[in-house]
């Protein structure tokens, strides 16, 4: 994991434009989760299911942002092409510490969907929106997770 | 350059037109009026070559600026005083140079008509009206070749030539050429106590605006100028070089576009700084590092959460009620069930679902789905809607006692449920009881 520690949710994001899309994100994600649950059997691989869930997470992010954003458009394109979602989460970054990332913009471009085709200014803008959406999605997932766990630990009392 | 001088000359011409003084002799710097007149009278000459179409001056602008009726009335009396103030800060050197120019141009014998024409051609980069403009114009405008080595930045010609600003308090005269910034000019003028900026279209003219000049040449300085005319002649070229672009104030479109771009990037970085924790780095490179790390972290979190969720995935029978959230403007999913339908039909549906739930959860779910509804634990519904509004470190805020949605209420009313959550645990109980802790 990262040597630094971030806590999502410790910052009051101005969810100005996310408020409506947040609900859409939630509904989309939950429906996707349900579908995954229904279609997965005990024989499904753990990795396969986790991939599907992850894909569903990004899909709901992209749908919530719609076509307004370059990154969401790129993400939707990637999802629709059924390519495997790949994100450069190279832990090898620590193994290969560049003195100061030669081109940080390049690294950022790889992280943000649709990055390579943006100029620097637009890249920063898209990154900000992408971060907002990511934090919302992460919080959503955490929320669902918590409610599920709590139910599991509070079985019904007949 | 020429424009600036033109402006100055315009001003001067205006006065000159009406003050028929002989060869200028500035004997009394103290007598502003006299000085002004004298300066103006010296005007002549260079006017003809000021036919630069680049900065045609509006007659109206000129009028406004100089408060000179085109018919040729003399400037207000108030102007000289004001001008004096403004000019007070000018350096004597500059004044000298200007004065010398004046004397030079004097030789060519400016004609009134020319002067008037010049006035008409006043740059629409508005020179500060009234305040010492005419004065400064006088001081500044003398250059024959059109270049006024103006330490006197003619008052606030807003946009005309931001470069020339003497220690402008505002770095960007952003629309420098196109949209004269009157207010800025005014401020500048006031702030600097009269520093005047020569309005000059950015033709590469560089004015020397050392801070010590502070503004327009003092009348006194200018007054001395003519006396030292000799030195001024040779000083013209060096004076040109002294005036150079102010920090960040571009003279050509490229630098301006560059500056705009940089500002936009700075804005974006600021927005990112607020989003990213530890975003208080001032260093741009480290800020980018933080951003990159944070994005990676978030993506990693999504991955981890998708893995850890699998144990509890089986328990995700409840889904967000989603009656009308297909479109982008989806309302709260939890309220979706209540939305649209009238209460009666909803209640009937709820009863039906409750009954079905007793028999077979799955079919109940499917029935709901067919209707576009889903069951959802109340706590989940409220947590989701409040999660983003009240972020907590752990993610889930203990569900506040929010009014349950009808869908959730259906579960609550179901005989199997003592609490809404419990009803749904019927299903989850069937699944793995132990969800992995997050």
Question: Your description of this structure?
Answer:
The complex is a heterodimer of chains A (158) and B (438). With 158 residues, chain A is mainly α. Helix content of chain A is 63%, strand content 0%. Chain A contains six helices and no strands. The longest helix of chain A has 34 residues, at 120-153. The termini of chain A are far apart. By secondary structure, chain B is an all-alpha fold. Chain B has helices at 2-18, 32-41, 59-66, 78-88, 92-108, 112-120, 133-140, 182-191, 219-227, 229-242, 253-275, 284-308, 310-313, 333-336, 343-359, 361-371, 378-387, 406-413, 420-430. In chain B, 58% of the residues are buried. Classes of the chains: A mainly alpha (158), B mainly alpha (438). Chains A and B meet through helix 1, helix 2, helix 5 and helix 6 of A and helix 11, helix 12, helix 13, helix 17 and helix 19 of B.
Jot down its keywords.
heterodimer, A: 158 residues, mainly alpha, 6 helices, 63% helix, 0% strand, globular, B: 438 residues, 19 helices, 52% helix, disordered N terminus, disordered C terminus, transcription (chain B)
Could you outline the blueprint of secondary structure elements for this entry?
The complex is a heterodimer of chains A (158) and B (438).
Chain A: H1 18-39, H2 46-65, H3 70-80, H4 92-95, H5 104-111, H6 120-153
Helix pairs in contact in A: 1-2, 1-6, 2-3, 2-6
Chain B: H1 2-18, H2 32-41, H3 59-66, H4 78-88, H5 92-108, H6 112-120, H7 133-140, H8 182-191, H9 219-227, H10 229-242, H11 253-275, H12 284-308, H13 310-313, H14 333-336, H15 343-359, H16 361-371, H17 378-387, H18 406-413, H19 420-430
Helix pairs in contact in B: 1-2, 1-6, 1-7, 2-7, 4-7, 5-9, 5-10, 15-16, 15-18, 18-19
Mean pLDDT over the full residue set of chain B: 54
Q: How helix-rich are the residues of chain A, as a percent range?
A: 55-70%
Strand content of chain A: under 5%
Overall residue-averaged pLDDT value of chain A? 77
Number of helices of chain A: 6
Rounded to an integer in angstroms, the radius of gyration calculated over CA atoms of chain A is 18 Å
The most extensive contact between chains is: A-B, 82 and 90 residues
Helix content of chain B: 40-55%
Number of helices of chain B: 19
Q: Which strand-content bin applies to the residues of chain B?
A: under 5%
Shape of chain A: globular
Q: Span between N and C termini of chain A?
A: 43 Å
Q: What is the general shape of chain B?
A: rod-shaped
Report the count of strand segments of chain A: 0
In terms of quaternary structure, what is this?
heterodimer
As residue ranges, the low-confidence spans of chain A are: 9-15
Helix and strand run of chain B: HHHHHHHHHHHHHHHHHHH
Structural class of chain B: mainly alpha
